[in-house]
Amino acid sequence: MAPWSGLWGAKAGGDAYRGTPVVVKMENPNWSISEISSPEDDDEEILATGARRKGGRTKNAKQIRWVLLLKAHRAAGCLASLASAAVALGGAARRRVAAGRTDAEAGVVAATGESPVVRSRFYAFIKAFLAVSLLLLFVEVAAYINGWDLADSALALPVLGLESLYASWLRFRAAYVAPGIQFLTDACVVLFLIQSADRLIQCLGCFYIRLKRIKPTPKSTALPDAEDPDAGYYPMVLVQIPMCNEKEVYQQSIAAVCNLDWPKSNFLVQVLDDSDDPLTQTLIREEVAKWQQQGARIVYRHRVLRDGYKAGNLKSAMSCSYVRDYEFVAIFDADFQPNPDFLKRTVPHFKDNEELGLVQARWSFVNKDENLLTRLQYINLCFHFEVEQQVNGVFLNFFGFNGTAGVWRIKALEDSGGWMERTTVEDMDIAVRAHLHGWKFIFLNDVECQCELPESYEAYRKQQHRWHSGPMQLFRLCLPDIIKCKIAFWKKANLIFLFFLLRKLILPFYSFTLFCIILPMTMFVPEAELPDWVVCYIPALMSLLNILPSPKSFPFIIPYLLFENTMSVTKFNAMISGLFQLGSAYEWVVTKKSGRSSEGDLISLAPKELKHQKTGSAPNLDAVAKEQLASKRDGKKKHNRIYKKELALSMLLLTAAARSLLSKQGIHFYFLLFQGISFLLVGLDLIGEQVE
């Protein structure tokens, strides 16, 4: 690179510097000096003392200037990258807004099950809060520009005009607004610390389990020969697959269950189809008929009236007369694919253990690396199974049934009152009632059942709404029974204060209130303080603990922290709906599946006679597929959504971030900035599956 003879190449008076030739290796955007040399290295400089020194002073100064220049170029490259990302985000936002599909449309409200009244009230609250924040930001910017830096002693001085109004606002803010916000802040911080302590204790329990290698072991195991019922412990097992309009996954679940390694005479498969789509009913019925022809003991049941959703479906199936011949029931949702040895690794735990009511296996996921949304879900669920379920199972013999991938003792179900349709979390309901009747649970962390994660934010949002509204419904209904039940006091305390209040109510409450309401308010009311360790250090530590069960997900720790705070809006809304029986508390929406199992997986599970045939459920599958394709073409085009609550909160957080710049609060500014961007991405549905 030739020496630059511009600004750095000449000095005043016309005397030119003796240049230092520099060879620069250009690797945009990274710049590095590969060689710096000076032809004047041999020149000598006479010092004041008469000593001679080689000319190094000029050379060193030139080197420093070039290094600084290259660092400036690197910084400019970073700024250009940030600007490009901002432009790309703006373009994506413009295209998404131009599509005009928001979550406020009647069709979306009906699909999500949220009440329009509840939705509009919550959204109106957020909009009002945003309007107040914008007004306060305008006032603070005006005060900053005009230099109204009024100290406490100056507030009593007579001032005129806008400055007088600003002084009055400061007095009112300090006297009336700040104490209330500070009280709410302190309360949320206390709840935050309690929940963090609970999380830390659970992690220590998991560490102890690993250190001591504690693992549930059956007292008797089934012998390898599954075709000889008299050779081992092979009790009668009923296998149920409840499903509803899930044509993407029915084949793989039915095939996996029919290939379970268990004596065929000792287990029966019930396909419980609640589908209201005639095409889906036909496909499932033909799949069942295909396996019946191959000798599998499998039956198809369809309900015309879908009363009680999944709970009603399971309750109806348990009323069949032949169920009395079976001792255990295994339940798998439509997207679950158990391994052939699933029953061999779970059912033996019931042998000689009459107090055991449930054996629960953990989930594994076929699409955990599909997109950022599935990666973040994977972190949450890994912690749930590895820490929460395992620790509660080992130390308490109680945990919430996950609704699938579990084996129940039918006597425990009947003793607990059977399936009830009173909530949308029938799995947690039956688990709590069984616990109150003295039944014990076992969680097997080493037995996995493959399933899918929701790939779109819309599907994930619906799922989380049901998972967080249902427990609050159940808490209202079960609280009198828990208090009256004749179990140990510590078990009652665990159910009320830890299982329900702390983990199902307090967690979404303080997450939303502390990080989405209080933190922005403290920017406009600086008299109320939120410590830096609450904003940064403790959440970072909790995120680190959450991510420990899935160490490969460590690069996603920051997106995970921001996304969890973003999801607190949906969880808080769902918690309030369930607690006060509002709107969507009793609505069930089936989580959409994509059917991620490959065709090779289906072929490997198919009967031997069909492996060399064309993949299908029946000879007329081609005609059915053409009909299905035509119905898709005639249907409405699929779109990504725009979520108004998340967008409004993103504007609120970004407004608070702008206000924090005036007070130079570094940690608060960065947290609010990135959290606001996170809400913006979610509000524009730019996370998860993208629809063209």
TrEMBL record:
Domain of life: Eukaryota
GO molecular function: glycosyltransferase activity
Subcellular location: Golgi apparatus membrane
Entry annotated with the keyword Cell wall biogenesis/degradation: yes
PANTHER family for this protein: GLUCOMANNAN 4-BETA-MANNOSYLTRANSFERASE 9, XYLOGLUCAN GLYCOSYLTRANSFERASE 9-RELATED
Role played: Probable beta-1,4-glucan synthase rather involved in the synthesis of the xyloglucan backbone than cellulose. Seems to work simultaneously with xyloglucan 6-xylosyltransferase. Xyloglucan is a noncellulosic polysaccharides of plant cell wall and consists of a glucan backbone substituted by xylose, galactose and fucose.
Single GO cellular component term: Golgi membrane
Membrane topology: Multi-pass membrane protein
Spans through the membrane: 122-145, 174-194, 505-524, 667-687
Ranges where the Glycosyltransferase 2-like domain occurs: 329-522
Family stated for the protein in its record: Belongs to the glycosyltransferase 2 family. Plant cellulose synthase-like C subfamily.
Keywords for this protein: Cell wall biogenesis/degradation, Glycosyltransferase, Golgi apparatus, Membrane, Transferase, Transmembrane, Transmembrane helix
Native source organism of the sequence: Urochloa decumbens
GO biological process terms on file: cell wall organization; plant organ development; pollen tube development
Entry protein name: Glycosyltransferase 2-like domain-containing protein
